[in-house]
Structures are given as structure tokens and as C-alpha cells.
Amino acid sequence: MTVEGSDVRWSGRHAVVTMPAEIDVANSSGVDDLLAAVAARSPDVITADMTATVFCDSAGVHALTRAHRLAAANGGELRLAIGDSPVARILQLMGLDQVMPVYHDVQQSLATPRAGPDSLPDLTA
Amino acid sequence: MVARRLCGTRPASSVSSPGVGEAVRLLGEDERRPGAGTDVPASACNHDNDGCAAGSLRSAVLPDGAEKLGDIQSITDAALSMLDPQALLEVLVDRVKEALQADTAAVLLLDHPSGQLVATAASGLEEEVQQGVRIPLGKGFAGRIAAQGRPLILSVVDYTTVINPILVAKGIRSLMGAPLLAGRTTIGVLHVGTLSPRAFTSHDMDLLQLAADRAALAVQALTAQLDRAAATALQRSLVPSAPPAVGGLELAARYVPGSGRVGGDWYDIFTLPSREVCAVIGDVAGSGLQAAVIMGRIRSALRAYALETADPADVLTRLDRKMRYFEPDAVATVLCAMFNPSLDQVRISSAGHLPPVIACPGQPAVLADVSPDVLIGMPIVKRRHVSTLRFPPGAVLCLYTDGLVERRDQPIDEGMAQLCAAVAAQDPETGCATVMAAMADVSPHSDDVALLMLRRSPGMLASDGPDVPGHGGVL
Question: Domains along chain A?
């Protein structure tokens, strides 16, 4: 399963998925399938590397939300590596940064162990 | 993919659009290499003692088979111009039955919500359709074909091999079925049966698979047409081009589908018994009929919750709980704005939706300070916030979806700034036209665009509220 401009690398049980430069209705289902295939292998962490992504419309955001749910359903966690991408602002406006851990780059995410139960988002409010 | 493997001697293009001559020639190639097209699962062979290999008890004679294939193809070509998939399938099963000299033929289509195959057209086996036969995926003969996406031959038809009692009661002795494939996905099953034992051959199987391929294309095309028509009709009802008049508020709206395809954007506005006015805008993930159906459900649920609570954050919290439970695959951004009866204040809560633009008379328009809470449908519960804004006479509130401001070549903040520059405290109809013109600076939007502008009537006194809920008329 391939999407132009994207690829998957594994570091143990941590999958790093490089996202395409632009994610929109034209390729979002491909991104969806790619992330679903990765999530199906039950990694501890999937880091979506969006540091080189310059555009992500609502179709792209929805692909990320589905991947987040799939990762959680398989016992994993979806993280975003954003860097200085303009996409960061869109994700913030949509409240996604409150749901998915955001890192500056892939190295930072790789160096950060999986969050324990104490640091999970607040489920009681 | 099975269709490819079965018909492996055909060029790939013939899978999507086999010409008659091409199909005839390729069947000829198979004829010279007996068994080339045979792909009968071992499980079928176990039951098929005398005919699983390229036996020829009663094989379709090639020239005749080719002619029959031509018949099947001409039907499906003609059917593509018709709008009734039911009629197409009924003709198709008749012709397939004749072409294969079988006694029965039936098409079952996969019903996605239930995951069951539903008997849709049958010849010689009309009871299947009349009794609304449904076969679970993976169960029985058709269910196995659908689950595996592979053709199957059965030479023993009893309750150990089928679960549909009609097949047994009818006295069917042999069955052959093929999947209707849309890409990698099975959308249905076509099967034929005989009342006397029959060893189906690889040619029979090829013919059936070709008919199934054609049927799949036709069903997909017709379903897509019907889906588009239904989605458009549903979307129109959810996004009326002329929003209903609400007392004390002047309204105007625009909706433009992205790339000509109906997307997931919608808006709604209604007056509550408390004389408060509720305005909603949202964007459901996906497009087409499925997204339109989810939109309709969200709209209904929001109206119901707005009757129960005057707190927009509470409305969205309830909506989120409902969606996570009943529509666990759906994701949406939704913004809910509630105006108090005198319209001088508006309370806004946003579930991941872009902030509205607000313009007061004599002042430049600004982005409303609304905290972006989590989208609807995420597997997480967080407290939602409400922002209360002053809404003086003549003020304009502009609700929109992301397609209006997102551009490939600029950060979204610039798009929102551009929108602010285009919004003014003027009459909403002119306002919508101005905004659409100002923002249509690029080639056709790939995403759909919804825009709803509301102005508090400039001359209205604070004590004037709408008299008739929902239909107060424009003052």
C-alpha cells in the first residue's frame, strides 16, 4: 500500500509514517488506508511525520482522527510530529492537539517513551 | 485479485471494459489451454468429485458461449444508460441463466450496514427475492464467496454446504457462484444452479465471472448515480439555499460543493420555545450519501438537545456522547451558537470548528474569541467551553466551513484574515456575495464551502423578540 510522498519506517514497535506534502480529498483515503494498515500491526506508537506537510484540509484531518481511533483500538497511540508546518495551526483550531500528542520532530517522539495511564487525557471532566 | 487471476490471460483493461471481440478472443485462448481459467477453491473440490478439474460433462460450447457473453455484455452496456439497477439485474440473471443453460440464477448484493447479502434479483428462484433472503457474510454458499472474494462450485447442495433453505427445497443439485467485485471489495454475488447434477467447467466459470464483472461495474455505476442524486437531494434539504426567516435576524447563505461532489458541510438555524435562536454549522467527515445521512442525524440530534439545554457546550457534549455510541465511525466539526431572545448576546461553543467572524457596525470584523474544543466523535471526553459575545443591533455573525479559507499556498491564518477583511456589518445577502467573491480567488475549491451570515436587524429594540417561533419573518 503506497501513497505518493509517504512511507513507513519501523523502530522496534514504533512506526514512523511520513505524510505527503499535501493531504486532501484526492489522497486522504490512501493516507487512511496506509495508517490503518500500520495500526493493524498493533505498534505501541505511530508517529505521523507531518514536518514536510504544507497543506491538510478537513479530509486529511479526518484521516488523522480515524487513525487515532484505530491506533487506540489496537492498544497504541498516534502522535504527530509537526515541526514548523503550517498544518500545526489547523490542528490547533480543530482541537486535535488536545487529543493527539504533538512533537516537534520524529527524533523527539522516538526518544519519548509511551505515556503511562497517569498522563492520559482527562476522561472525567 | 480473483477477477484478475481468473481471467489472467486478459489484459488488465479488459477487466474494466471488455469488448465483445476481445472477450471472445480471450475465451479462445483459455480454450486452447484447458483449465487455464480454473480457480476452484479446494473446499469446493471436496464436494465436486466428478467435475472440479476441467471436466466437460456439459461445457458451454465456445462459439455459443461467446455469443451469449455478447448478449450479457449488450445488456449491461444498455443498462448503464438506464437508471434502474433492479431492472438491469433482472434482465441480467435471465440472460446468465440462459447462457449457462442453468435452471436458476440469482444476484445478492451486500448491504453494508447489516453485513448481509440480500437477494436482489433471481430467475428460476424468484422465492429468494420475494422472501427477502439475507445471507450473513461468510456463511453458506454465497456468504463464503463474498467473504473470500473468490468463485466457488458446489456439487453437493444440502444443509452442510448452504444455509438458504430455498436452495435445498427447490431441489438444486449443483451451484456455481462468483463475486461481484469493486476493486478489492466484494459488493455482491452472482450464482447459477441446476436441478440435475452438473459439473461446471472452467469456461462456465469464466463466463460467470465475466458476467459478474459486468454486473459489478453496472451496479457500481448505477449505485453511484443514485447515491449522488440522493445525497444531493438530502444535502439540499439540510442546506436550504434560502434559509428560513427567523424573527429579528436577517439571514443569507451559500453552499458550493467541492469539485462538483456533495461533501459533508451543512448549517441549520431555528428558534426555540424560549425564543432563543440557535444557529449551527458543521462539517462531517467524508462525502456523498453516507456523509449526508450522518449530517441529517447530527442535525436532528442537535435540535433535540437544544430543546433540552440552553448551554451550547452541553448541547455539543450530548451530541458527542450520542455520536460516539450510535455512530462510532463518524467524525465532525460542529459550531453551535445560541442567541438570547433579545438577540443582544450570543453564546458559542465549537467542537473543532473554525472560529466565526463577527462584525459590529463601524468596526472592522474580527475572529470571534472562541476556544477550539475537540471534534465530535473522538474517543475522548473533555470539558467544552462557551464564549459569550455581545451582539449589538446591526452586528453580523459569519459562520463558515474550512473550504472557504483554506488555501494550498498560504497559512490558514491568512485565509481567515482575508475573510475578516471581506466581512462587514451590512445586509447578509450582499455580505455573502462579497465574501464569496473575495474568497474565490483560486481555481475551483476541492473542498466544499458553506457560508451562513446572520445580522441582527439594525433598527430593532432590545425588547423586540420573535413572536412566532421558527417563522417570525424578517423584520
Answer: 7-114 (3.30.750.24)
